[in-house]
């Protein structure tokens, strides 16, 4: 049982490049989400999914796309990277709602992205 | 929408002292308040949570208190140890409808031996 697995752990991009951050969970959780973590700003929700085929925008969705074709996978796509997207990205999953109410929100180990 | 403010942003204590981190929230309908601990370079992990129908909850050296009237909640760590050094995040949520946690900005706690 690996929990939530994110790849890559580190990535450097040039402005305008695109890339996909991968997230997979093996806990059969319906709810998955992506957060970005910036100094002094805590964790902010980018996109979330309440099940396969269902996604929605969070607090800071601009510049990112997501899809949820299977229960296990929830990739985050950067369409045209900008320096403002330099951040640490966390994928999370839970079985009892996005917030993990009555259960825990399980985070991946994070992906540190630098956009030059 | 919900807004969560967290103070202080940094907190330095000596080993054995107590540490208190405070959060305020704006939406009176919020009814679930978790705390996450993030060690350096690691993922955030849930350490304790509280529902709005409870005023206080304890788990060994950590406790959380909630004041619904004032819309604030606090994390208390007693007998701090160096391994308590981490960033702590509070969060608030209304557990109805689509659930989206709103996190505070984090408190970096440093416990010196």
Give an account of the 3D structure:
- The complex is a heterodimer of chains A (116) and B (113).
- With 116 residues, chain A is an all-beta fold.
- Helix content of chain A is 0%, strand content 50%.
- Chain A contains no helices and eleven strands.
- In chain A, strand 5 and strand 6 form a beta hairpin.
- Chain A is globular, with a radius of gyration of 13 Å.
- Chain B is an all-beta fold.
- Chain B is 0% helix and 54% strand.
- Chain B has no helices and eleven strands.
- In chain B, the strands form two sheets. In chain B, strands 2, 4, 5, 9, 10 and 11 form a six-stranded mixed β-sheet that branches. Chain B has a five-stranded antiparallel β-sheet with strand order 1-3-8-7-6, with no helix packed on it.
- In chain B, strand 7 and strand 8 form a beta hairpin.
- The relative contact order of chain B is 0.34.
- Chains A and B meet through strand 5 of A and strand 4 of B.
Q: Could you list some keywords that capture this structure?
A:
heterodimer; A: 116 residues; mainly beta; 4-stranded antiparallel sheet; globular; B: 113 residues; 6-stranded mixed sheet
Q: Strands, helices and their partners?
A:
The complex is a heterodimer of chains A (116) and B (113).
Chain A: E1 4-7, E2 10-13, E3 19-25, E4 31-38, E5 42-51, E6 54-57, E7 64-66, E8 76-78, E9 87-94, E10 106-107, E11 111-115
Parallel strand pairs in A: 2-11
Antiparallel strand pairs in A: 1-3, 3-8, 4-5, 4-9, 5-6, 7-8, 9-10, 9-11
Chain B: E1 4-7, E2 10-14, E3 19-25, E4 32-38, E5 45-51, E6 56-59, E7 62-67, E8 72-77, E9 86-92, E10 102-103, E11 107-112
Parallel strand pairs in B: 2-11
Antiparallel strand pairs in B: 1-3, 3-8, 4-5, 4-9, 6-7, 7-8, 9-10, 9-11
Briefly summarize what is shown.
Chain A has 116 residues and is mostly beta strands. Chain A contains no helices and 11 strands. In chain A, the strands form 2 sheets. In chain A, strands 2, 4, 5, 6, 9, 10 and 11 form a 7-stranded mixed sheet that branches. Chain A has a 4-stranded antiparallel sheet with strand order 1-3-8-7, with no helix packed on it.
